[in-house]
C-alpha cells in the first residue's frame, strides 16, 4: 500500500512539472526591428517594401520625414492621409519601387507634390477608406 502512495505522489508531481514547463515555455515572437529606410515611405503591410514617389501625399511627411506606417507608425492619433493605391502592388502596380537605403531624387519633393492624385485614405495601421 505504501508503494502505491509513493507511486501516486510521483505521478502527480510529474504531471505538475510537465504542466508547469509547458505553460512556462518562452513565447516565440517576431522582432520588429527598425523601420525600413525608404526615400518616399514604405507600404503599411508586410513585407513593408519601399513605396514609390507619389504613393503617399505630402501630409504623410513632417519636415521631409515620413511619419511611418504599420508597426512603426508615429503620426498623430486619428490620422487619415491620402494615398494613390494604384501605386500599390496589391492593386497591380509593377513600376519602379525604390530600394531600402536609396536617397530621394531632388526633383521629387515630399513637402509638396503638384501632380499627386490620391484616391484612398489610409490611417498608417493598414486600414483604408475611400
Layout of helices and strands, plus pairs?
Blueprint: H1 2-23, E1 61-62, E2 65-66, E3 81-83, E4 120-122, E5 128-129
Antiparallel strand pairs: 1-2, 3-4, 4-5
How would you summarize what this structure contains?
The protein has one helix and five strands. With 130 residues, it is of the alpha+beta class.
Strand order of the largest sheet: 3-4-5
Radius of gyration using CA atoms only: 25 Å
Q: Look at the helices and sheets and give the structural class.
A: alpha+beta
- Oligomerization state: single chain
Q: Estimate the mean pLDDT confidence.
A: 81
Helix content: 10-25%
Q: What is the terminal separation in angstroms?
A: 76 Å
Shape: globular
**What's the β-strand tally?**
5
Please indicate the percent range of residues in DSSP E strands (runs of 2 or more): 5-15%
The helix/strand series, from N terminus to C terminus, equals: HEEEEE
Our count of domains comes out at: 1
| Helix count, DSSP H or I runs of 4 or more residues | 1
Low-pLDDT residue intervals, each spanning 5 or more residues: 3-30
Largest sheet: 3 strands, antiparallel
Amino acid at each position: 500500500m505504501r508503494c502505491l502512495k509513493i507511486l501516486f505522489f510521483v505521478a502527480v508531481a510529474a504531471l505538475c512539472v510537465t504542466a508547469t514547463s509547458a505553460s512556462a515555455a518562452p513565447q516565440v515572437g517576431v522582432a520588429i526591428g527598425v523601420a525600413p529606410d525608404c526615400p518616399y515611405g514604405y507600404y503599411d503591410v508586410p513585407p513593408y517594401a519601399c513605396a514609390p514617389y507619389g504613393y503617399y501625399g505630402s501630409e504623410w511627411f513632417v519636415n521631409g520625414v515620413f511619419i511611418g506606417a504599420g508597426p512603426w507608425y508615429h503620426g498623430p492619433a486619428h490620422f487619415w492621409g491620402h494615398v494613390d493605391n494604384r501605386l500599390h502592388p496589391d492593386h497591380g502596380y509593377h513600376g519602379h519601387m525604390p530600394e531600402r537605403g536609396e536617397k530621394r531624387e531632388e526633383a521629387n519633393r515630399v513637402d509638396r507634390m503638384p501632380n499627386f492624385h490620391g484616391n484612398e485614405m489610409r490611417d498608417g495601421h493598414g486600414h483604408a477608406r475611400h
